[in-house]
Write a structure and sequence with these properties.
single chain; 153 residues; five-stranded mixed sheet; 6 helices; 5 strands; globular; Acyl_CoA_acyltransferase; GNAT_dom
Length: 153
């Protein structure tokens, strides 16, 4: 059996990450998987990679990338200066969904937030992702807030 690990993403992982982000109806409408990848993906990766409060993670099985998520650590005054962990862009490769890997990836992220001293872990997911809602609730997340977004471009 091949070992499964979670590690910091490398620039060479971008095609696999973008492919996973694009692998659903919402992602297909907003991602561009054409080669070569758009420069914006590399610029975003560079900004994330140099920021100590950002962690772009990949889950690997041998040399294959089978999952990804992004952690952001947010300092705030609210809740007595609590540090928050924000989880975004959670994806597991289509052929590996339903195998428990998503749970392992989220458990890793929560443990990393705890290790960094976060008092709270939060995430957002699109209203249309009912399977994701059930998944997050099964892991103990509560739909406690309403979120709003304003697209600027």
């Amino acid at each position: 059996m091949i070992e499964i690990n979670v590690r910091r993403a490398e620039q060479s992982d971008l095609p696999a990450i973008v492919a996973m982000l694009a692998d659903d109806p919402l992602g297909r409408a907003r991602e561009d998987t054409s080669e070569p990848l758009a420069r914006a993906y590399f610029n975003a990766f560079a900004a994330i990679d140099k920021d100590p409060n950002q962690f772009l993670a990949v889950m690997t099985e041998g040399a294959r990338i089978i999952g990804t998520l992004q952690l952001t650590f947010l300092a705030g005054i609210s809740s007595q200066g609590a540090l928050r962990g924000q989880i975004e862009a959670v994806r597991v490769a289509a052929d590996r969904r339903g195998t428990g890997l998503g749970q392992r990836l989220l458990e890793w992220a929560v443990a990393e937030c705890d290790r960094r001293g976060c008092r709270l872990v939060q995430l957002t997911t699109n209203k249309s992702r009912s399977d994701a809602h059930r998944f997050y609730e099964r892991l103990g997340f509560k739909a406690s807030h309403v979120g709003y977004k304003l697209e600027l471009r």
